[in-house]
Amino acid sequence: MDLILIIAIILLGPLLLASTLRLALRVGRHCSRKAYIWLLYHVVYPRILPGDMHLVNPSRAEILLLLLHWSITGFFNAYDIHSRTEFSRRAGQIAVLHMLPLLASQPLSLLADILGMSLHTLLYGHTVFGVMAALQGVLHAIFSPKVALTARSSKAMALTLLIALLLLAFLPVVKSRVYEIFLRTHVLFSIALAVTTWIHIGNEVILKRSLLVAYAMCIASGLWRTCYTVRSNIHFRTSRITSVSDVIDGKLATILELQLPRDLHFKPGQYVYITLVKRRSTCRTEDARQIPSKQLELCVVRMLQCVRWAVQRHPFVITWWQDSMHKSSTERMYVAIGQQHGWTREVTAASTELNSAYAWLDGPYGHNIRFEEYGAVLFFATGAGIFAVQPYLKGLTRLIQAGRAKIRRLTIVWVTDVLTEKVPEWMETLLHDSYIERDASLPLLRIAIHQLDKAGKSIEKCGARLIVHKNTQPNIDEYLQEQVNHGRTTAVAFSVHARLRFEIRDKILGGKSRIFRLFALSYQPHNADFDYRLDQSKHACKRSRVAVWAILYWQCCVINRFHGIYCKLCKQAGLGVLYPSCEEAEGIVANALLRDCATGP
Ligand SMILES: Cc1cc2nc3c(=O)[nH]c(=O)nc-3n(C[C@H](O)[C@H](O)[C@H](O)COP(=O)(O)OP(=O)(O)OC[C@H]3O[C@@H](n4cnc5c(N)ncnc54)[C@H](O)[C@@H]3O)c2cc1C
């Protein structure tokens, strides 16, 4: 069979189904509302595994695409194959074909924007193609005919290729713990793979040409992106560079105010990749001036930190920007950095040194969800998730003011331990916008804050639109029922921890009403940084769960004792990324054990 045809079918098969699904959703939305809602509630929204404690839990739609992809690939693995050599060759071809989009689709954020899909969905596709490339590479190596001694170099190449493919496939497992190491090795192995593949495929003309196109696309998009970021970060005429103009320390997050060298236009839902470079003076030590050796040591540590920071880039939602009614672009934007275990922890600790540090921004990326087309919008946020919701509030209030939004009810439910100073200030600017209140009897904008660190339950009403529930969990059913009573199609968007994400999805899918449309915002907070306490009456302690936690706790304790020296070394070397994997795991598991026991059987 013609190789081009194989390329088209394998690569376009899942894409075709995805586009068909999207088209069906769009057409269905206008033609057959029943079919559209059926697709949403039975294919798009439901996850395949129950519960919230899963590392991976794809939706039915994603599994459908995966099955289609696997069956098409399996078919071509077997189609018109008569010998072992042919099988091995075909597997090799399919492996290279799967590598083409992986190599060409750089950077992923840019491609996600071009295709109009979320970064999350594109990363899923990237993983699926990567795994298949690795699998086909393995098949190619296993079934390859015995090579003559003279072709030893070719065999070595094949082996390198195989190892690189395997590492590429399995590295994501460590992604969640040591992201920086994952990223560097991922890029390094991708380059090694690209080179070895080129040498290994020999005379396969079509494959070579396709690879050339993929490499060219990768280099071109890389160059274009570099030029674009240089242009947006440096204003050559005025010699201005993006820099941190203010740092606001909060318990929830460290908020950076960034001064841009030129006006940029931002949309809600966008994010930027940030690299921070401290100015030279901030690398000097002030406190250890009397002891030269100590000063030298500290200076070296700080310089190493400067270098480490300079090679890292982290994505953050553009949570706020200063614009006026007359100008949609701005020179000032804000990002909120919630503390995790690596770079974010160091940034939080060194926040006082960040004033006037240089910032290198790559972006903005991400697409704006058109909430203004819905009759009602209900936002859920926990902890730092509010920073992903705020830009939408800002955008929607502007649209309501301009009379370009259908929204009649806008509800925000924020569950938090701490109130960061800047959020109430920003919210106040929205609440004070008198245009938002068109009809005094119907508060269009309503904000419910569930503050969990307060002793004693109470409800405080602050004006018509702001309610603070102290020490009370949000009742998801109640919030959904309110929307049902009003009968408008409601967009439910969330930036919440896994447990609440699961609860919202579960309640919506389990309910009778089909007025809800679900949207996950681009940033979802991590579980460990927020203690979203369970409603004790609903979540009874299961003995098996306690047993699993107990075993894990014991394992962590043992590992921790053996790795005590390793942890100390990591800490001393400033490798915060590696450090928590030893020590904090014990704490996290112990907390979970205590929590599960406390809830009682
Ligand atoms: C589109 C998007 C928008 C985000 N917006 C915000 C925001 O507004 N506020 C906020 O506090 N956090 C946001 N995050 C999360 C933030 O990027 C990570 O918490 C941060 O990069 C962790 O850095 P760390 O070195 O401290 O991480 P670690 O403690 O090493 O890891 C913590 C987690 O962050 C992930 N991570 C680490 N580095 C990166 C990276 N460079 N890119 C992607 N993921 C990474 C790891 O996989 C891990 O799951 C956003 C993430 C994405 C993908």
Automatic annotation (TrEMBL):
Keywords: Membrane, Transmembrane, Transmembrane helix, Transport. This is FAD-binding FR-type domain-containing protein. Residues 234-371 form the FAD-binding FR-type domain. The chain crosses the membrane at residues 123-144, 156-175, 181-199, 206-224. One of its GO terms (molecular function) is ferric-chelate reductase activity. It comes from the Eukaryota. The keyword Transport applies. GO terms for biological process: copper ion import; intracellular iron ion homeostasis; iron ion transport. One of its GO terms (cellular component) is plasma membrane. The lineage of its organism: Eukaryota, Fungi, Dikarya, Ascomycota, Pezizomycotina. InterPro entries: FAD-bd_FR_type, Ferric/Cupric_Reductase, FNR_nucleotide-bd.
